[in-house]
Amino acid sequence: MRPDVLLADIEMPLLSGLDVAAELRRRSSATRVVIVTTFARPGFLRRAMDAGVAGYLLKDRPVDELVAAVRTVAAGGRAIDPSLAMAAWSDPDPLTERERAVLRLAAEGRSSAAIGDELGLSEGTVRNYLSEAIGKVGAENRTEAARIARDRGWI
User: Fold this and answer.
1) Is domain 97-151 given the CATH code 1.10.10.10 in the classification?
2) Residue 123 CB contacts under 8 Å (≥ 6 apart), including other chains
């Protein structure tokens, strides 16, 4: 039996809620995903919408609002926290998927060579992706770029 609605968070063990939503979408699952999280970041909402979630709610909402949102999603609608809805399109994510992947690994303290090994890229290509990401977010270095991207919900 498959659930009608799946509640997930952004950060969970093994897979993020965004990864779960994207995988369900890839499998053409009828299960609708609602993200319930503390991350009130427009970047996360945009990524969630791109992954096909039907709802994005903050954990601090009253229980009756959360229940109503789940019912709305189960009936085929969408439920998006209104405070985030407008902000999600005011701060667009400038990063490509590859730049996000490289920044995530850089944020873990990995060297360009280690990042390249993990992603199947040359060390020079990793440096190019990092340089592009640093420029796009207006950072001075990879550490600052990763921090900015994480703060905005882009990685």
Assistant:
1) yes
2) 112, 113, 116
**Residues 9/17, Cβ–Cβ less than 8 Å:** yes
What does the pLDDT read at residue 43?
A: 78
- Give domain limits for the chain: 5-89, 97-151
DSSP result, 13-67: SSS-HHHHHHHHHHTT---EEEEEES---HHHHHHHHHTT-SEEEETTS-HHHHH
5-89: CATH topology: Rossmann fold (3.40.50)
The string over 6-26, giving b where at least 16 C-beta atoms fall within 10 Å of a residue's C-beta and e elsewhere, is: bebebeeeeebbbebbbebee
How big is the CA angle at 19 (ends 14 and 22), to the nearest 5 degrees? 150
What was the pLDDT predicted at 14? 87
Rounded-to-integer distance, Cα 38 and Cα 142, Å: 26
Ranges of residues in the chain with a pLDDT under 50 are none
C-beta of residue 153 within 8 angstroms of C-beta of residue 43: yes
Residues whose CB falls within 8 Å of the CB of residue 103, separated by 6 or more in sequence, listed in order: 95, 130, 133, 142, 145, 146, 149, 155
